[in-house]
From TrEMBL:
Name of the protein described by the UniProt record: Cu(+) exporting ATPase
Catalytic EC class: hydrolase
Catalytic activity, EC: 3.6.3.54
Residues forming coiled coils: none
Entry superkingdom: Bacteria
Keyword list, A-Z: Hydrolase
GO molecular function: hydrolase activity
Protein source organism: Companilactobacillus kimchii
Amino acid sequence: MVEKTQKVNITVAGGYDPEVVKLEKGIPAELTFTRTNAQGCLDVVHSKTMNFEKQLPLNVAQTVSVPTDKAGEFEFSCGMDMFSGRVVIK
């Protein structure tokens, strides 16, 4: 059986759109961030709780795999922690 992957595209422009991502527990997931605005601190996205940090070059999609083994809410944010979003796993 081929396991499906949850894929979510997030636009980064003065914040994150969507700001809240809902995922199903136990199904592998990927978040793809695309920065479309040259605003400074949004050139990095990171999450301590989901254990990733990615540089976001302008207009280049960057994909990170996120763990879905635990239910809960997990935050991701820009390099200066001024803008943030959440992943909700149920």
